[in-house]
């Protein structure tokens, strides 16, 4: 036996190095998909990455063996060669599975690197074992063999470290190519160290030849097959990023990032952020524009608002569209003063005029602000906090921002509890009607009562309607509550009129939700029939907002009720968007002057408005009722202005039915004594 001395084809060695770099770069790109996928998709990308990495390493190894010539013709055992391929792919897969986790550690990287290194060593020396020649045997230098194994493990650990470092990088760059070059160099170093460990021994000198032709078919076949795999992989990644990812993570209307992108942003960008601030923006009165001008104009408005918000996108901030007219801006590393300044600038941008399809529109926005870590670190809680603050900004008048605080959290918790308890309040008899008299200043006697709903909560006591009515409006429970108020008010009216020489009316407030339900006529007929109350003793009060919502529909629902003899009143007249041009079209009998004018009755301007309303009502043959009368001076002013029917604390606060009976009995006794 004598030793064979081999040599390398430099061009083929260079090709093996290039293949190694390209395989490493492809794997670095695929790692991004592993980190940003979940479930079966993540497993699929992990398998693809392992296949590319493993087959790339094996191809480099195989081409490196082809580059080596020992002067004796060699063949390859196909089954053993396939085993070496499978070893490289499986080692890559399990190394990725073990080490490419969201929360990694050095120990996990070391274990993963050891797994991959062991797989590479297995692949290399199994591939060496597949080389066959009847006259050649192979022995190994133990020191160099151990060195090649160490290089394989260290190279694998370095590769996994780089994979972990670039797991959030989707774009090509010098650093990524440098990392791929380092990985390629390490893999080649392991291979050629392993080749140096091998000694080839020949027992027949006659089979030795000075040169042997390179098997170009095998070389080119393996090379082009591997390159084809990489090209297809790059194409799939490019398609996924440019088409599928854009569809999945971008809002189709505005091009902004969507809710899916928001979840990814929290995981990738904010996981280790020391501080960040959320700005939850909602456009004010957007529904009105959608309903009046159409959804096409609404879409254009959203697009224009999104375009203005794009200016806030930078390296530290990103804007998302959550849906409808809701947007979210996240800014990293800003303090409280900077946050309020940004919110003010956003509001300024939003309220500039919009020129859309010949329409000049003016809208405003409301912003809720929450910050981490001041208001927590949990994503859901921060979003809820910003959303809650935004609604508080709307409740305070819109076109402003509100910074979340713990008191707001208590209010939100109470609101949620009231909403939950409201579901059972009707069945448990917790609602009760209070009644406030409408006073005739000429007869010095009430003409009727307005039914005002109160909630006797078992834990919180009497809850103001200002607190629970908005909740009932949002949840839709206001419809069933109005039905109950109407039925109870009709029964009570029948009872108190049993002792009255002149009938006293009862009035019930209606919500826009009742009109939307299309059940108003059925509700009224049922209440009148069950109570046997004459229709002319029932008065229904609606606000200007209801009228402005849909004049035609409101008129169509009120006209049959008016024909039955039911009185229709406009409540809080002068406080909203008064439709003066439609007053003669709506079947009103009474205008109720909003209490705001009485609260500011010392103002000459407010007195002038009151006089104008009274004159207008007189010319339209409408009765006038002034609300909020609390002083004798206000009473005298109204009487002098020609208003005779009034309502307010000056005459009586709202009272439950049992107190009303006592109040009426005392009033009648005083009235009789006055006559006598």
From TrEMBL:
Record keywords: Membrane, Transmembrane, Transmembrane helix
Listed transmembrane segments: 12-32, 44-70, 76-97, 109-131, 143-162, 174-194, 214-237
Protein name stated in the entry: Signaling protein
UniProt keyword annotation of rRNA-binding present: no
Annotated ranges, domain GGDEF: 274-406
Ranges where the EAL domain occurs: 415-668
Positions of the MHYT domain: 8-201
SMART domains per record: EAL, GGDEF
Pfam families named in the record: EAL, GGDEF, MHYT
GO cellular component: membrane
């Amino acid at each position: 036996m004598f030793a064979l001395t081999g040599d390398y084809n430099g061009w083929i060695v260079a090709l093996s190095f290039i293949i190694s770099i390209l395989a490493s770069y492809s794997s670095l790109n695929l790692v991004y998909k592993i980190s940003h996928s979940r479930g079966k998709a993540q497993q699929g990308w992990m398998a693809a990455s392992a296949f590319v990495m493993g087959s790339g390493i094996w191809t480099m190894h195989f081409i490196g063996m082809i580059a080596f010539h020992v002067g004796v013709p060699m063949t390859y055992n196909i089954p053993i060669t396939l085993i070496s391929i499978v070893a490289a792919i499986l080692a890559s897969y399990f190394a990725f599975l073990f080490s490419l986790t969201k929360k990694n550690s050095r120990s996990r990287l070391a274990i993963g690197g050891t797994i991959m290194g062991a797989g590479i060593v297995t692949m290399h020396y199994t591939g060496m074992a597949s080389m066959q020649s009847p006259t050649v045997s192979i022995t190994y230098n133990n020191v160099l063999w151990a060195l090649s194994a160490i290089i394989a493990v260290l190279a694998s650990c370095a590769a996994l470290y780089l994979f972990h470092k670039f797991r959030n990088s989707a774009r090509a760059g010098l650093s990524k190519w440098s990392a791929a070059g380092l990985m390629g160099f390490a893999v080649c170093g392991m291979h050629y160290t392993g080749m140096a460990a091998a000694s080839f021994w020949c027992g027949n000198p006659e089979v030795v030849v000075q040169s042997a032709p390179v098997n170009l078919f095998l070389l080119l076949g393996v090379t082009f097959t591997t390159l084809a795999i990489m090209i297809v992989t790059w194409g799939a990644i490019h398609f996924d990023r440019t088409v599928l990812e854009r569809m999945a993570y971008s809002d189709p209307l505005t091009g902004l990032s969507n809710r899916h992108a928001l979840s990814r942003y929290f995981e990738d960008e904010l996981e280790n952020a020391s501080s960040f601030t959320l700005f939850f923006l909602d456009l004010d009165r957007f529904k009105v524009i959608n309903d009046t001008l159409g959804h096409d104009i609404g879409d254009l408005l959203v697009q224009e608002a999104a375009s203005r918000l794009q200016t806030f996108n930078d390296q530290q901030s990103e804007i998302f569209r959550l849906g409808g007219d809701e947007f979210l801006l996240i800014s990293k590393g800003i303090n409280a003063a900077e946050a309020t300044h940004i919110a003010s600038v956003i509001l300024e941008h939003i309220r500039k005029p919009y020129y859309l399809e010949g329409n000049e529109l003016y809208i405003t926005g409301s912003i809720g602000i929450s910050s981490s870590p001041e208001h927590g670190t949990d994503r859901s809680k921060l979003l809820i906090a910003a959303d809650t603050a935004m609604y508080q900004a709307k409740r305070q008048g819109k076109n402003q921002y509100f910074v979340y605080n713990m008191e707001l959290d208590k209010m939100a918790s109470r609101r949620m509890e009231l909403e939950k308890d409201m579901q059972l309040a009707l069945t448990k008899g917790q609602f009760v009607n209070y009644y406030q008299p409408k006073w005739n200043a000429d007869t010095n006697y009430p003409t009727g009562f307005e039914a005002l709903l109160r909630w006797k909560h078992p834990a919180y006591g009497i809850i103001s309607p200002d607190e629970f009515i908005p909740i009932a409006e949002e949840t839709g429970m206001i419809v069933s509550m109005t039905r109950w108020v109407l039925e109870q008010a009709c029964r009570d009216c029948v009872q108190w009129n049993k002792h009255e020489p002149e009938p006293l009316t009862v009035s019930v407030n209606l919500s826009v939700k009742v009109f939307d339900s299309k059940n108003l006529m059925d509700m009224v007929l049922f209440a009148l029939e069950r109570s046997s109350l004459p229709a002319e003793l029932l008065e229904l009060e609606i606000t200007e907002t209801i009228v402005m919502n849909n004049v035609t529909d409101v008129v169509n629902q009120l006209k049959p009720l008016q024909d039955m003899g039911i009185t229709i009143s406009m409540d809080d007249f002068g406080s909203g968007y008064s439709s003066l041009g439609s007053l003669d079209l709506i079947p009103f009998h009474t205008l109720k002057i909003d209490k705001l004018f009485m609260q500011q009755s010392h103002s000459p301007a407010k007195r002038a408005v009151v006089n104008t309303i009274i004159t207008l009502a007189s010319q339209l043959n409408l009765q006038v009722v002034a609300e909020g009368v609390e002083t004798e001076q206000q009473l005298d002013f109204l009487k002098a202005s020609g208003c005779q029917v009034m309502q307010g604390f000056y005459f009586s606060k709202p009272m439950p039915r049992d107190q009303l009976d006592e109040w009426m009995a005392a009033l009648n006794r005083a009235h009789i004594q006055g006559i006598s």
